[in-house]
Amino acid sequence: MKNRKPFRRSILIWVLILVGAGFLYLSIKGFSPTSLALSLRDFLLTRFHPAFPYTSQEIEFSHRDVKLKGSLYIPQGKGPFPGIVIAHGGTKLGRKLALYVIMGQKLAERGYIVLSFDFRGFGESDDPPKIESPEDLDFVGDLTQAVSTLTMVKNLDPQHIYLIGHSFGAGVVIQEGVKDQRIKKIVSIAPGRRTFERFFGKNAPDKDWPQIRISHDMKLPYLIPKEILYPVLISFIAESILEFPQHPPLLFVDGSLEDPEDQKFLKNVYLKMTEPKSYVTIPGADHYFGTRKDESGFGQTPFYEEKVVREFIDTLDRWLRK
């Protein structure tokens, strides 16, 4: 049998020469070797998806004397790894909803340190000691403290901290991301829209619904007064980004099965907002992106539509790395 080793060696040598020439050319054009290496790493990660083994642990931290519960998903390895804080939507399950558990796990497999946590009053976090003013519903402050908690995790890259929020949390991450210099990118998934038409406007048909929904999801024995709750919720609507002409790169994510009018509204907000910005629609996705809206992801393997979830996670990963 003919010895093919010299042929293979020649091919390898030519590949190395071409790669070296490419690096030399780009270096001359002003690209640093470090940035080139990171770009090559990110290209490979987003296309071949090597799965990092990861560990998870439950943590607790506090903001304004309110104890908040969180889940950390940490890739194994030396790092440094980029970091993500996930802000949940309106749900009694908080961070334990299947969507957020799956996001934490799969993003950790892609090499991100992920902190998913419960806002005050949601999930396993403590209730506010009192609700007498909008300041007692300091969800943005909870998120700020979550970011600070993430920065203390070993092997985190502090230059690459991102926020991902869904639904109710999609508005909170905008408010936090535009004021916190530590945040490099914001992902706002299916944020609240057409809210004045539905809830907050003078002739809105469902003025009581946000009050009932949030009070229920926070498992409170009473309804939060509208004059306290609604100024907070209005700050979290999709079009709030229009108040901030300067902001980190922001990605709006929607599902193709959302209400067509909701999709149109969000697209119009995207068109009006300033750069840097991106917008993407996930095919076949509803508001919960291939997962069930009331299913816990803790202590079991939750149901999910693999094709939708894979496209969803791929989209987040590609945009965060570019």
Description:
There is one protein chain. With 322 residues, this protein is α/β, with parallel strands linked by helices. The chain has one domain (51-321): Alpha/Beta hydrolase fold, catalytic domain (Rossmann fold), CATH 3.40.50. The chain is 40% helix and 19% strand. The protein has helices spanning 5-28, 33-48, 98-109, 139-151, 168-177, 195-200, 209-217, 226-234, 260-272, 306-321; strands at 54-63, 66-75, 81-87, 113-117, 156-166, 183-189, 250-255, 277-282. The protein has an eight-stranded mixed beta sheet with strand order 1-2-4-3-5-6-7-8, with helices on both faces. Strand 1 and strand 2 form a beta hairpin. The chain is globular, with a radius of gyration of 22 Å. The model is unreliable at 34-39 (pLDDT under 50).
Spatially, the strands of the biggest sheet line up as 1-2-4-3-5-6-7-8
Q: Report the C-alpha radius of gyration, rounded.
A: 22 Å
Shape: globular
Order of helices and strands: HHEEEHEHEHEHHHEHEH
Report the sheet-strand fraction.
Answer: 15-25%
Just name the CATH architecture: 3-Layer(aba) Sandwich
What's the story with the biggest beta sheet? 8 strands, mixed
Head-to-tail CA distance between termini: 47 Å
Number of helices: 10
Number of domains in the coordinates?
1
- Structural class call reads alpha/beta
Low-pLDDT windows of residues: 34-39
Fraction in helix? 25-40%
Summed over residues and divided by their number, the pLDDT gives a mean of 90
The CATH homologous superfamily name equals: Alpha/Beta hydrolase fold, catalytic domain
CATH uppermost class: Alpha Beta
Which fold does the CATH topology refer to? Rossmann fold
Secondary structure tally: strands: 8
